[in-house]
Amino acid sequence: MSDADAGRTMVDIKAVHKSFGTLEVLRGIDLEVRTGEVTVVLGPSGSGKSTLLRTINHLEKVDSGWISVDGSLVGYRRDNRATARRASGKGGGGGRAGKLYELSEREVLKQRTQIGFVFQNFNLFPHLTVLENIAEAPVSALKRPRKDALDRARRLLDRVGLADKAGAYPKQLSGGQQQRVAIARALALEPKLLLFDEPTSALDPELVGEVLDVIKDLALQGTTMIVVTHEIGFAREVADTVVFMDEGRIVEQGAPGDVLDAPRHDRTKAFLSKVL
Amino acid sequence: MSLTSDPPIDTTTPATTADGADDHAALKVVPVRHPWRWAAIVATVVLLAQFAHGFITNSGWEWGVFAEYFTADVVLKAVWVTLQLTFYGTALGFALGIVLAFMRLSASRFLQAVAFGYIWAFRSIPLIVQLLFWFNLAYLYKELKFGIPFGPGFFSFDTMGLVGAMSAAVLGLALHQAAYAAEIVRGGVLAVDSGQLEAAAALGIPRLRQIRRIVLPQAMRSILPNAANEVISLFKGTSIVSVMAIGELFYQVQVIYGRNGRVVPLLMVATVWYVLLTSALSVLQHYVERHFSKGTTR
């Protein structure tokens, strides 16, 4: 990534609401993430952290508000004519005159290839080898030649320290190794943005470190990431911004030193006093 | 590579006390005896021996007649017809079944309802009744036309000629089979962890590829045992089409013993063929299941 990109807005979330039935999970979220930055989202269970993360690559559809990644709306396309009319100086009405077209499934899938997602439960494909897991999406979604995809998959495995596991099946690996494969699989698409949904929550305590090390390494190389986690130490060490969520709202956000060491809100203080 | 390992056996542990009272390693282990198990085994052996003796010595089995007809041309032809009925019934049945399964899994309420209605109807109608319906299709529709719906037709078939006994049988078996196959396939797809589809979607893998490469190979694990049941039950179920005077195995055997009166040996001819071919299917099932169990631990 070039330095010119740094500081540009990568993710822009505006007034996002989401309900499951009568339960309102996200109650108006605004968040901006800049290119090259690491944002760590903290909060108690049920605070909406995971749902927020899943709306960013359209695994969940938002009820209102909008999200853009690298300048393009997630899941929708803006009516060009309305934009043109507004640009010609007519409109004082904002985007109200235009329309948002829902993207087709094919277009949504294409958008997702630019956003890597790492799941809490890894979700590796159990019937494919580690190498096939990593090369699958580059071949089928990006139409890369199979040989190139496999070569690249081997390099990525090397990068997460699992070069000798190429032919293994996921069930033959430890949880930590599986999650490192899942990270390599997400990286194989060369995404602009990486989303981590509690990447270490399903791991035995002694395996957490090896996964966090891989994520830290990515952070040092300037990968733009949003990480939902309960690992406060990791947040302190790696995050550029820490976001604390509770009951579907962002309670406070800022530099890790501010939010973690001098929280302004009682809710944040109460949460941190329990987890620290 | 194995995921389990035996606990290390420590052979070096010394006796815990010096006087030898706790030194179990030096004692001889006497296994528990099972006298009643032996009694049961003896009784079972006697019964089996009696059965085998009767099988061999009872002249009513007429093994000579059995041997004469077992590989007779007319019987072999009938076996071939039975195999064809099974093959086409299975192939068409599962092809339609997969379509119905994905209709039931689709987001469209209408498609769901149509598939549900089909499955409800064909599971409710006895196969034999349905077969006779197809056999008599010509009473209902004189000809089949292909063309614009409700409009003019481009070409047409005479129903009488098109739905002969054999195609009526295949049609009936396949439509019946499709209803069961649909539920088996749907069950298999539902058994695949939803995280798998989510991961495939998050990676941007195209929809058809998600199904073909990610979902179906995993669904096959739970589809196969049930599907094998269905194929085997269809294989034996083909004997039902004897009501339509089709020369499959059971019908042919009936024809022969109707002529020569040797009922028992000819029923044995059919029985042994059914057993042999079912066994072959079971062996095939074993290998197909092994193919789809890659990456699993059980």
UniProtKB/TrEMBL annotation, chain B:
All residue ranges annotated as the ABC transmembrane type-1 domain in the record: 79-285
UniProt cross-references to InterPro entries, sorted A to Z: AA_ABC_transptr_permease_3TM (IPR010065), ArtM/GltK/GlnP/TcyL/YhdX-like (IPR043429), MetI-like (IPR000515), MetI-like_sf (IPR035906)
Pfam families: BPD_transp_1
Location of the protein in the cell: Cell membrane
Bilayer-crossing regions: 38-58, 78-103, 115-135, 155-176, 263-284
Domain of life according to the entry: Bacteria
Family matches, as NCBIfam families: HEQRo_perm_3TM
Name of the protein this chain belongs to: Amino acid ABC transporter permease
